[in-house]
Amino acid sequence: MRSLAIALLVAASPALADDEDAAALTIADQTPTASSQARDWHAFVEPALGLASVRSGESPRDIERLSLDGRYEPSLGSQWRAVVADRLDLVNEDPLLDQRSANTLKEAYLSWQPRSTLLFDLGRVNLHNGVAYGFNPTDYFRVNSLRSIVSIEPASLRENRLGSVMVSGQTLWSDGSLSALYSPKLASPQLANSPTNSVFSPVLGATNGDNRWLISGSQRLWDKFSPQCLVYGVEHASPQLGCNLTALLSDATVAYLEWSGGRSPSLLSQALGGPDDSAYRNQLGTGLTYTAANKLSVTLEYEYNGAGLDVDAWNALSHGPPAAFRAFGEFVIQAQEPPTKQALFLYAHWQDAMVLRLDLSAMQRYDVATKSGQTWLEARYHWDRVDLALQWQINSGAPGSVYGSLPVRQEWQALVKYFF
Questions:
Q1: Using CA of residue 205, residue 207, residue 208, residue 209, what is the dihedral sign?
Q2: Which is nearest to 130 in space by CA: 8, 47, 243, 209?
Q3: pTM, entire model
Q4: N or C terminus: fewer CB in 10 A for the chain?
Q5: Using an 8 Å Cβ cutoff, are 3 and 193 in contact?
Q6: Which CATH architecture has domain 2-419?
């Protein structure tokens, strides 16, 4: 139901590239900060009101939200710094809309840099990996990290999630880097968005319910081509290999490919606790980003999830016991993966669209297996310290499809974002 749509929308996270290619790939997260002065803290408050129409014929549901978000990053000397980032979302709780108030401790860690080429972090870190935009197979630490969803826009989903407690180290050289991290088990596994969690719970069992590790390295092979390779491991599971590639095809066009592969069970087996059907499975996000001279950027992406359902499996699930369907949806939202094997993703962002300080964004997701889609539009106007935005989304498709079976048909939301 609604959780299935959210699951399709949460598989996202570019935060890898460290050169000019990254600017063309992170096209959507371009809200200007309120001040150009350097300071060690940033914060904003964001009230929002909206309306959601449901397929059941019930009266529309009100959307009411107040969000407080802050980041504090003081320097503790020439080699040390601390980072704390937190977000509180207070909402008009509604089970049908899957909304509940929650505090998300995004980051809380110490960083030590004994020399310019060596860096260590200890604490809760919101780690991003990947170069794709709509689905990031190598963003391994996205799993079970969302406490609340205030926007289905991928950049929001990457930013507003729980970090994982870890110890990490990174060494740099002129043409590359190598990093390693270990994230220990600190509590029994639990769901990040469980209604039994208190508002201010750190939910360590969501992000640190298993022992996990990650090794990654990148090396510039030639001008503007620096592939990254990753090896990820989690307790009681086979390691996963990953790769991120970008290539500048022209001054305006970037091609990217993000891949992960390894032995793993299917999503259905994991969700329903069925027989172990582990096999070698691939996941892929690949596409193109074109940036025009008028500040319009367009990304078109193909997504493949080898652990997802094909047409026959989806039809069997959607027409089977409702409890199994709900269990699958709840699992997929925690895994933040597309529930079916193939999908298409389109994202467009137009900065200063015809009018200075007016940004327009559009997103379209299309599920190939069930021929259903989801559309999201936003108009956002910036002042020096205030944003005003209007958002609209609609779920379309035949009954029983991924998006057509959702209880919520469309939503409107207006928000004001004030930067301190």
A1: positive
A2: 243
A3: 0.88
A4: C
A5: no
A6: Beta Barrel (2.40)
